[in-house]
Structures are given as C-alpha cells and as structure tokens.
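Researcher: Next entry in the queue.
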Amino acid sequence: MKNLFLINQTVKSLISIFLVIIVFSGCKNQDELKLNDADRSSKNRLKAAILNSPQVIIDDMTLTPDAPLHGTEGLSWGTGEASPQPMPVPAKNWKGEWWQAMTSWGQVYIPRTGSTATNTRCQIRNVVTKLLKTDGIWYTAQSGTFGGSAYIEDFANNTNKDAGARDESANEGGLSVIVGAGNWAGYNYHFYTNGRAFVDVNTVIGVFTTCEARLIMDDPYGTDDRTNCKNLLQMGSDWWLNTTVGWLPDWSANSGIGGSRSKWVTSDWQSYSMCTLTPPQISANPPVGNPIIGGDLALNHSVTASSVQTGYETSKAVDGNSGTRWASAESDPQWIYVDLGATKTINHVKLSWETAYGKSYQIQVSANSTGPWTDIFSTTSGNGATDDLTGLSGSGRYVRMNGTSRGTAWGYSLWNFEVYGN
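Model: Structure for this entry, 422 residues:
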C-alpha cells in the first residue's frame, strides 16, 4: 500500500509540473502574440521600405508596359504606358488657375488577352502620397485608409458598382478584390485615397504615389489558380482646383497629373509607383530608399545667389531641366551656392552655361552658408558651354560657384549646376 501511495504521489507531482509548463508556455505565446500585434504596423512599414527603391520607381516610369488593358481598345491610355517625365509641378488648368489640391489613385485590370482564374483576389495595401518641396524633403500627404469601386473598363458614363472588397487587416493589411471575373467581368477596380491633399504652389515641386499588391486566394480551401490570374496594376494621381470643388463639365476643376506603366501583380508583394520627376532626379533624391550613388546631389535642393533676374530664379539651376536657367545681374562679382542638406564629399561639379558664362570663377565648399569658403577649383580661362570638372577633392554642406569675371557683357547664367560625390 505504501508503494502504491508513493506511485500516486509521484504521478500527481508529474501532472502538476506538466500543467505548470503548459501554463507558462501559454503565457509566453500570449506575450509573443501581443508583441506581434503591437509591432505589426512597424513591420509593414519596414516591408514597404524593402519592397520599394529608387530603381523600382524609375522602372515603373520608364519600362514598357507589361500588357494593354482589357476593354480599353481605341483609348490612348489603355496601352498601359507610363506618362512622360518630367510632369510639371506645380501646374495650372486651361484657364490659367493653379491646381491647389491633388489625390492619388490606382487601377487594376485584366489584360486584353483575358484571365482564366476564378479563385484569386488582388490584395492592395499601403497606399501613400508624398509631395516634394523646395527644401528637398519628401512629405507624406496621404496615407492610411482608401477605397474604390468596380468601374466599366472604359469608364463609359462613369458606370460603377460595389467591388466586393474584403477586409484583409488580419492578413498583412489592406483589402482585396476580384477583377474582371465572375460578377465583375467587364469591370476594373479603381481605388483612391480618402480626401484630397492641399498643394502649396509656392513650395511643392514633385508628386509621388505608391501602393503594394499581391495575389491571394479567394477561397483558401478551393483551387489555387493564382498562376492563371492575370492582373495589371497602375498608380497615378489627379489635380484638383482645391480640396472641396466638385467635378465641372468644362474640366477646369480637375485633370490628370500622370500614371505609371501597367505591371503584373504576382503572388509576392510588389510596389507600384508613379513619380513626376525624371530618372536622374529620382536617383538623386528618391521618395523612398537611399539616393543612387552617382546622382546629382544638388538636384532640387535649396539655392541662394547674389542676384537674380526676373524669370530666371535660382531654383532653375538645380531643377534638372535643361530648358530653364538661373541668371544674375550684369556685374561682377556674382555667386550662387546650393545647400546639400548635410556635409558631403565632393569630387565632381558640372556647370552648363548659357551664352552668359563665367571666364574667371572658383568652385568653393563650406560648412556654413556664410563661409569661410575653400576653393576646390579655380580658372581664369573659362570659355562657356559645359565645364565638366572632375577629380575635385573637398567636403562641405554648401557648394558655391563664385564668379569674379564675366565672359560676356551679360551676367552669369547656368542651365544646370550639378554636384556629385557621396
């Protein structure tokens, strides 16, 4: 009997220990779940940063479209081509009124060759708008919730219906829709951010819109036919006269800014982006990720000059546009410097002169806008055209062209003032 009692006590002890292990294990799992819930949004932001990059944005705006859009035959935008860059920002309507608001949009289509999938949805998340200002910083203007509808593919009479969107907040975020199949055959999915973003025409010089998308199963217990699903996604944006005006039949209240190329949606998350800047501008100052090495460090940065002629403002020397220029007063000396935003090592400066060029000038760097300035290049025999100055060595936050003798009776004038380094 004593042996039996000892055995029973041993069994009870083992059961107690086992239960304690289970309880503590359960507590640990609950804590991990709480941590995962708390970190979900930050992890999604990290994924967004990894998914998108300056090169992906450039590709979305320069590569050929993956396919033309179903039901858009005869429509110029139906080819899926990206809008030409650069797109003017800020801009005016045909009446000469400034567009002072904008909104982002995206659209999902099947290709003109069709799609045979019936159990696949397009999941979309992280719809974001950023505006580039004259200080060289990209500011988030729209993010968070978005919505949309299923529209007749050619938008005839603006006919639309409920898209049957499914909330995917428990499945890595966003929402999902079926496009071009079943009840939505002959329809696209057109989505947009909630509300409009204000555009300060005195400071905003660029627009960027982006989202992420992937293919998921409609019924997780059904047939996985994602490999048969052909969905194309484009991102874009529209101008509006202000944040509250409605549509007007003369099209003076809104107009398109531009759009990206059509790109396949796959089973893996991808980013889809539209940007009004040129590839060199995106490389030098991307809305996401780090600048591509070798990009123009001065592009769209703050510029100051000793004098300015009306219509030839300092910013036009660093806007990446070879058709706009800065021009100074017709006297000596004159200077122009760019604020790179942080200390950089400079090894290359490129000056693209208009007819009014500098015969004697110095390229100088400084840690402060007030100096002292250190020469990293000097000449007394400049002859205009393009001065491509390589092999320089210096560092500073500010880079200045200091003109001491003009080559003509006019002032100093630069189409482009480019700075390279790291």
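Model: The first helix runs from residue 2 to 51.
Researcher: Noted, moving on.
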